[in-house]
Amino acid sequence: MNILTGKITAIEVSGSLSLVTAVAEDVVLKSIVIETPETASYLQEGRPVKLLFKETEVIIGVGNLSNISLQNRIAGTVSSIEKGSLISRLVINTRLGEIVSVITTRAVEQLNIDINAEVKAMIKTNEMMLSE
Fold first, then answer.
1. Domains in the chain and their CATH numbers?
2. Mop domain: from which residue to which, for each copy (predicted)?
3. Is 66's pLDDT higher than 80?
4. In terms of pTM, does the model score above 0.70?
């Protein structure tokens, strides 16, 4: 599990859903949660929050990524690759710390990802979990 620390900067509520914006260092991250400030006391602007996401939910991008809908994008450099026959585990050094991604080995090869490659780790808003 990847865990980052940030601070809540905005909350948009619609029914029982909240779109929570948090900043970690100077990286803006967003999460959709099935809670509201009325149902979860930690959902308050200015409060610290942990942002959690599974290694299998980290999408890796290389090059120009301007025309995709993923909002959570964290730039980094690949520091480690463990290649298996079907899946590979990548460790990415970012300004927020290490992020681990598990993707197919075929994707690693198609994207020509190697040690020191500049990549973007991307996480869908509905895959980003929050915790106090």
1. 2-131 (2.40.50.100)
2. 67-132
3. no
4. yes
